[in-house]
Amino acid sequence: MSYELTDEHKALQATVRDFADTVVAPAAYEYDTKRELPYEIIAQMGDMGLFGLPLPREYGGQGKDYLSLCLAVEELARVDQSIAVTLEAGVGLGVMPLFRSGTEEQKLEWLPRLANGEALAAFGLTEADAGSDAAGTKTTAALENGEWVINGSKQFITNSGTKITRLVTITAVTGESERADGSIKKELSAILVPTPIEGLTVEPAYDKVGWHTSDTHPLTLTNVRVPEENLLGERGRGFANFVETLDEGRIAFAALCTGAAQGCLEESLRYAGSRNVFGRPIGSNQHIAFKLARMQARVYTARLAYYDAVARMMRGEPFKMQASIAKMVGSEAAMDNARDATQIFGGYGFMNENPVARHYRDSKVLELGEGTTEVQLMVISRAIGFPG
């Protein structure tokens, strides 16, 4: 079996790589320091069609496959994880739930604007006591006179507070039922909330260790009212639909991880070949060469893992376990390569203007976001017959 890219995939990959190297990379340190999302770069990404890559043309998309999105995310992540996750979350968590579960009217209203980068969408799942544990959801939505009235709070929501954020999908408890054993089962649904809207407060941005350019906020919803038809998908299947979308999203997230690991490798190869100590390049020392070899092996393995997962997904085969493996392997590769790259650079690797220093700060969240390593292990162990 070969994972050789088609000519069309290679052309897209080359185009995004050039954009990443000539536009994103030169601005990365400045915006990381200012902790600002570079809207002019996001606009260029929109003009390139990156936010609409996996969407059909009738919704303003590019009509490409999901691998195309992954390749674009990987190339951006080499130089700036914040920009890469803005795309990955904007499509994987913002666009895809709407595309997979929305009505035709909802798709026609929202997808064209999201596909061209004019607007960003976010997905509000995580709460203080809820995320992987859906039963912990406390946000509620009650029907009153043809409107959903939403109350609650969300946290760690990517793309939720930008000046072009126009939609947040919220998971909320829309009812309860009693199980046979007397326990209460919560009915969770997903509801489209356009922004800005009365009652939705975007709280101050988090002071994060990394991903400084990425937009991340907590949200507070106080008597937010939206029409009943803003229900996304079937009532009571909000979390189930999101889990299905999350499986896809983990593949794109794994591509982001692979790009981060690749970026650390490229920077280290360059430095190891140009930095001379005791009259020779440091890369000529075996312990440095072996470190680089391990970095290459991690990138190779991570890329194969997400290529396999996305190939299964596009063939319509089960891919849940493979997506979790790709996400786990990729995030560990990124973190390990960031650590090794920083070691190779020595003191220079500790300076924030150095890309490997930013990767070192940024990569830890890759083991946390879109399901922690422990969640991936849970998914994998269940898939091989050990439910825990």
Architecture overview:
By secondary structure, this protein is an alpha+beta fold. It has three domains: 113 residues, Acyl-CoA dehydrogenase/oxidase, N-terminal domain (Butyryl-Coa Dehydrogenase, subunit A, domain 1); 116 residues, Butyryl-CoA Dehydrogenase, subunit A, domain 2; 144 residues, Butyryl-CoA Dehydrogenase, subunit A, domain 3, CATH 1.20.140. 50% of the residues lie in helices and 18% in strands. The protein has a four-stranded mixed β-sheet with strand order 1-4-5-8. Helix 1 packs across helix 3, helix 3 packs across helix 6 and helix 8 packs antiparallel against helix 10. It is globular. The mean pLDDT is 95. Belongs to the acyl-CoA dehydrogenase family. One of its GO terms (molecular function) is flavin adenine dinucleotide binding. This is Acyl-CoA dehydrogenase. Keywords: FAD, Flavoprotein, Oxidoreductase.
